[in-house]
């Protein structure tokens, strides 16, 4: 797993307890041992949790081919759910195509039994790193 200095942190990802295994050479791997707060009313992984895991895996794969001091933001993502997510989820991301401004990735989630849970395709835009704490202008209402 990368140290915090090598990998940006996200309070939301930390809250979900998603763990990075690797992110290098256009590929990534994450794990998420499911806990009760990750589940929906049917006691399976909430679809939003599965999509967040996929978004993170794709974004980390994209970041692994980005220039220094460059981040990525999701432009679009499509997810197909194959079966319920249970146990420990493992997500894999892979870069399919990279241009100077965008990167196109695919990924999948599998459960503890290696069952195919979900598949995603996504497009990400490269962004230069911005200083932390910058002020955002509020939209005027009128």
Structural commentary:
The protein is α+β, with helices and mostly antiparallel strands. It has helices spanning 11-16, 47-63, and strands at residues 19-24, 27-33, 70-81, 88-98, 102-110, 116-128. A hairpin with a 2-residue loop joins strand 1 (19-24) and strand 2 (27-33). The longest helix is centred in the middle third of the chain and has 17 residues, at 47-63. It is globular. The model is unreliable at 1-6 (pLDDT under 50).
SSE succession = HEEHEEEE
Total beta strand runs: 6
Distance between the termini: 48 Å
Q: Work out the oligomeric state of the chains in this entry.
A: single chain
In short:
This protein is an alpha+beta fold and 142 residues long.
Keywords for this structure?
disordered N terminus, 142 residues, 2 helices, globular, alpha+beta, 6 strands, six-stranded antiparallel beta sheet
List the helices and strands and how they pair.
Blueprint: H1 11-16, E1 19-24, E2 27-33, H2 47-63, E3 70-81, E4 88-98, E5 102-110, E6 116-128
Antiparallel strand pairs: 1-2, 2-4, 3-6, 4-5, 5-6
């Amino acid at each position: 797993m990368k140290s915090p200095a090598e990998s940006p942190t996200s309070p939301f990802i930390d809250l979900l307890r998603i763990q990075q295994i690797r992110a290098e050479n256009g590929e990534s791997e994450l794990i998420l041992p499911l806990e009760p707060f990750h589940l929906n009313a049917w006691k399976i992984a909430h679809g939003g949790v599965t999509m967040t895991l996929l978004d993170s895996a794709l974004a980390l794969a994209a970041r692994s081919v980005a220039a220094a001091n460059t981040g990525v933001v999701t432009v679009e993502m499509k997810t197909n759910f194959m079966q319920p997510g249970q146990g420990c989820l493992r997500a894999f991301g892979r870069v399919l195509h990279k241009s100077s401004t965008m990167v196109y990735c695919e990924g999948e989630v599998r459960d503890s039994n290696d069952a195919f849970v979900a598949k995603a395709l996504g497009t990400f835009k490269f962004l230069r790193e911005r200083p932390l704490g910058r002020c955002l202008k509020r939209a005027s209402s009128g």
